Amino acid sequence: MYSSVENRLVYRCMQWISGSLYYLILRRRCSRANGGRIMAGMTMSTANCLAQPAQLQGEAVQVSKRSTRTGRGAAVAARHEEEGTDDEWLMYLEPAKLEVFDHLEPWAEANVVPLLKPAEVAWQPTDLLPDLASLGADGFHAACCDIRARAAGLPDAHLVCLVGNMVTEEALPTYQSIPNRFEAVRDLTGSSGTAWARWIRGWSAEENRHGDVLNKYLFLSGRVDMRQVERTIHNLIQSGMVMNAARSPYHGFIYVAFQERATSISHGNTARRAKEHGDLSLARICGAIAADEKRHELAYTRIVGKLFEIDPDGAVRALAYMMRRRIVMPASLMTDGRDSDLFSQYGAVAQQAGIYTASDYRSILEHLINQWGVEELVATGLSDEGRRARDYVCALPRKIRRLEQKAHERNDKKARPTASIPFSWIFDRPVNITMA
Ligand SMILES: [Fe+2]
Ligand SMILES: [Fe+2]
After folding, report:
1. For residue 112, what is the DSSP state?
2. Active site residue 296
3. Which pLDDT score is estimated for 359?
4. What distance in angstroms lies between residue 106's CA and the mean position of ligand 1's atoms?
5. Angle between helical axes of 5-33 and 95-103 (0-180°, round to 10)
6. How far, in Å, from the CA of 299 to the mean position of ligand 2?
7. Subunit structure of this entry (predicted)?
8. Closest to 334 (Cα-Cα) out of 350, 323, 345, 348
9. Digit-coded pLDDT (tens) for 221-280
10. Which of 145, 201, 322, 420 has the most CB atoms around its CB within 10 Å?
């Protein structure tokens, strides 16, 4: 598409100019949302204006209003000073930063694209579920009865986790649009031949099977209210997702590396629990998905590892930026149209069932710090901000571990109340959740 390096440079300049104009417009909008006030060091995130839903934008406005109060305002300002300005990520849209990805394209062709599995050898949902065409009517009926019999032994908490994971996977249209928002790597035509564009499409094609196979399994199991589940998927795709620094490939690849490892852990734990409950077909399905996620994690971890190699200062600052704002799960905006707090309830069940826990979040961070050699970054190669970012990231797992220990100690001292939460996904049957 771009026949020469010159054309690409012209394109980058145009992107930067249009990005800057866009940024000015957004600042103006933010300023209006704040009643005209943008305090020093308190500029509202452009990402908030771009990607966050109305209720979160409202929250940002409230923060601004609170900040005018004595004491509380000072604390908020101090926190922002520590976090850095929300606009910091915009510097990653400068041509010099984006050109890194042009130079890395041959490397991506050799080291990232080969991690995709061609359709001819990859598993397909039909390999893991009864196939009417090959089994015939009687064989298919018997296989479906077998699925229902095995699924009958799954506890409700496990079903809630499984539905939550499936709904998350089914919102793939949103996720494909995410890397297509990353400047310099996005698929400009929809069928671009660049290594980055082919990776994005190939990755999406692999991800598509995850929601597909889980949806079909749950349909055949007869254990869930499919209409409520489908409604949740519909709502989630309509709502989109929250992501900080959405156009920066540095921040974006860090986010996806974290997420791929998180989904691998979640599906892997679901597979283990399914096996314990005697549902071997579900264990196989979740195991196959977890293996895919692991391969995807490898690809994104490699990309970010390369960024740490060639631009350690930029990479560690982007990592600190993302961790300070926390990695929010992609399905955080899910709703079934009844429970306004559905995502939190699903998260609490997943934590309690050991499917995805706060300890997993910390262990993912520890793993990535280790993979990317963050602790070994030499101070002389970093700016002041880079050194602060490195120190912040390296101290974070210890902070999270301390919080975990305090929570355990608190729980050991006094019995926690239990809440009974009904989930529409399982016909409003309640699941007991121990409150934190
Ligand atoms: Fe997936
Ligand atoms: Fe994945």
Report:
1. T
2. yes
3. 95
4. 26
5. 140
6. 10
7. Homodimer.
8. 345
9. 999 999 999 999 999 999 999 999 989 999 999 999 999 999 999 999 999 999 999 999
10. 322
- State both tokens at 280: 């071997």
How far, in Å, CA of 421 to CA of 408, rounded? 23
Integer Cα distance of 196 and 8 in angstroms: 15
CA of 215 to the centre of ligand 1 (A): 13
Q: Is 210 a catalytic residue?
A: yes
Q: Which residues pair with 430 in a beta bridge?
A: 422
Query: Rounded to 10 degrees, what is the CA torsion of 387, 392, 395, 400?
Result: -170
d(CA 168, CA 201) in angstroms, rounded, equals 18
Give the pairing type, strands 429-434 and 418-423: antiparallel
pLDDT tens sequence across 355-380? 999 999 999 999 999 999 999 999 88
Q: Specify which residues 74 forms β-bridges with.
A: none
CB 267 within 8 A of CB 286: yes
Choose among 38, 19, 45, 196: nearest CA to 107: 196
Place of tokens 């349909």: 219
Q: Looking at the chain, how many residues does it have?
A: 436
Give the contacts of 191 (CB within 8 A, at least 6 positions apart): 197
Residue type for position 278: G
Q: Which domains, from first to last, does the chain contain?
A: 5-83 (no CATH), 95-434 (1.10.620.20)
Our answer to whether residue 105 is catalytic in this structure is: no
Token code pair at residue 418: 């239990």
Q: Can 131 be counted among the known catalytic residues?
A: no
In the chain, % helix, strand, coil (3-state, to 5) comes to 70, 5, 25
Q: What values do phi and psi take at 42, rounded to 5?
A: -125, 25
